[in-house]
Each structure stands twice: as C-alpha cells, then as structure tokens.
Amino acid sequence: MNEPYQIIRIRERPELAGDAAEWFHQKWDYPVEAYTASMEECLARETDVPQWYVVMNDGKIIAGLGVIENDFHDRKDLTPNISSVFVEKEYRRQGIAGKMLRFVCDEFAVRGINTLFLVTDHTSFYEQYGWEFLCMVQGDGEPEKTRLYRHEMNGIAGECAECPQTAVFA
User: What are the structural domains of the chain?
Assistant: First the structure.
C-alpha cells in the first residue's frame, strides 16, 4: 500500500481484460462471458462506450467500474450508464469509489458526453459525489424497481466540484 493507487483503462492495458472480467464476475455474479465480451468490444472499437476501468494495488485489482449503454433497465433512452461499481471491502472508506467516478465523469465530459446515469439500490452514497436521484426504473428480470441516478457535467474536465479529482491517489 506504499504505492499510490492508479485508475487503469482496460483499453490501455488489454492484458488485464481477462483478469478484470473474472474479477467483475466474482463481485456481481454476472456471467464472466458477458464481461469478457464487453471488454473485447471496448478493445476492438474506438467508440466511447463500452469502457472498463480498474484500480490496482500490489498487482491485484481492488476496485473497478464500467461504462455501458444500458445497465439492464427499462429506460433505454437514458444512456450511457456507469455499471458494476465495486471496491474491495478492505479498501472502502478511502475515497476510491469517488475518485473513480470523478475520473470517468471528467473523461466523458472531455469527449462531449455530459450526462451519465447509474442504477443502484444505495440511497445516500452517490449523492455525496454530485449524483442526483432521477427516477425509479424496472431492472430486466427484477421484481422490484430500483433507483436511477444522473450526473451532469459542463463539458470541461475538472468542473465537477462535488467529485474528488485525480487519476493517481494514495
């Protein structure tokens, strides 16, 4: 833990894609093949979506998230979606999730994508990073509706005052 953590774009480190797909699968119990396919699409295309990011410490993935078109809900018009946000338990409460969110928001703002969406059951976590509750959505195959959040940027990296800033952090 002496080295600062670094947010890594899978697109820039394709050799991590297999391990990342397996890691996300273990955290979310969604088929590893689906994560693998999305990461392969990320690597093969020069489009903004999908994108995948991980945070490493001592050679292992400790956190990550993705940006996909739709995170399996009925509001297909609300896109792109941040997906699969996860920080390993022993690394929580260190601001890692907030720094990942800030990094991705800034990256997409520079690309001209000024609104991102996120589906979650959390009721107070994302607000501290500038996300606002938008509406309830029906998840694909889910019996209950879940919360959909929106984050709007002004198109200039670093202009999201509510989010921590930096790609490398201690």
Answer: 5-169 (3.40.630.30)
